Amino acid sequence: MQARAAELSITLLYLPSYSHNLNLIERLRRLxxxxxxxxKYRPNFATFRAAIEDTLSQxxxxxxxxxxxxxxxxxxxxxxxxxxxx
Length: 86
Fold this sequence. Notes:
Layout: H1 2-7, H2 24-37, H3 45-57, H4 64-70, H5 82-85
């Protein structure tokens, strides 16, 4: 792959095998956790599930602003990528 990329003058950028910040569903999961579960006692599974469902039902209203901030496709870019491959 590296040889073929060099022939075609393609610069390969090596990304981590997994980065939860690049995965949009992980961002949604983090928002759900913060808004419905984190720091709150849920005595049973039914109330735990109800809290999550309530948060999901309010995503486009009460949680629209934080959701919009999380679901951007703007990522940090680096000018000198040679530092990342060594």
